[in-house]
Amino acid sequence: MSADFRLKEELPELTDRIVASYHDLGVGHHLGHCPLPNTHEVCEIARDLRAVLFPGYRSRRNLHMGNIGFHVGALIDGLHDRLTEQIARALRHDFMRRAKQADPDSELCTKAPYGGLPDFEADGQRVTLAFLNQIPALRELLVEDVKAAYEGDPAAASYDEVIFCYPGLSAVTAHRIAHALHTLGVPLIPRMIAEWSHAETGIDIHPGARIGPGFFIDHGTGVVIGATCRIAENVKIYQGVTLGAKSFPRDGEGRLVRSAKRHPTVERDVVIYSNATVLGGDVTLGAGVVIGAGATITKNVSAGTKVTAEKPSLRFRAAG
């Protein structure tokens, strides 16, 4: 039997086994008539929002006060339509998901058109307009973040360098966008933006984290900030810092309690140096606290306290 003949027999059989796994496993596929938000489009929307928040740095040059209105107007017009579509998809998917959880035999996702269901497009447009109206306020927050980075890093030569080059500011910009959408109740899309930013910068900030103005992440690689973190104004953190959870509480049936506060509260003017770890929803770092590099914190730290890890003992051994 030739190799080509065997392939003609084996590949259809392999296909049948793969398709059977979709039926048997249940989880791990999204098949039906409820389209998810498009990953590429959401990332492009995030890039265009960044261009509105900080015009003239990346996607379009030669902008000035004489033409910026036309440029931003075109971006906002396109963002309105594209974001409305993606948010409508996210809202529809979330509605269908909840319906399926409540009734596993529900066939809502197979019905088209979606008669008798909420008007997801209208809801998407309403949320989009509410979000776009926040852009001036987001710019005010981000300008404070830019100033904090410039004032907090002697290596920064200018505000332009911070905006153009600093991964910490890129991550915070994405977070401000994602958090605004998260606060408006948009499913999926905030997390998609957060993970796009995570891939670009190496900084992982959950959209649920609440972060005050003047936030500066220096260097940034490996920073993790959990969903229920509360960070006040003028906080500075370095690479490798984790603001995480001690453990995950469970209910009487052993299921995760998803609404519990699991991550720390950080009050104003705190500095956390590289590779420090702060764990627990019951942990508060008071105003002006300084956490030294490599320290692990699992209990409250009073305002004004400086915490350092014990100096490790080094052993040197001669070659040979």
TrEMBL record:
The keyword ATP-binding does not apply. Keywords: Acyltransferase, Amino-acid biosynthesis, Transferase. Its EC number is 2.3.1.-. InterPro entries: LbH_SAT, Ser_AcTrfase_N_sf, Trimer_LpxA-like_sf. It comes from the Bacteria. GO terms for molecular function: acyltransferase activity. It is an enzyme of class 2 (transferase). The keyword Transferase applies. This is UDP-3-O-(3-hydroxymyristoyl)glucosamine N-acyltransferase. It comes from Alienimonas chondri. The lineage of its organism: Bacteria, Pseudomonadati, Planctomycetota, Planctomycetia, Planctomycetales.
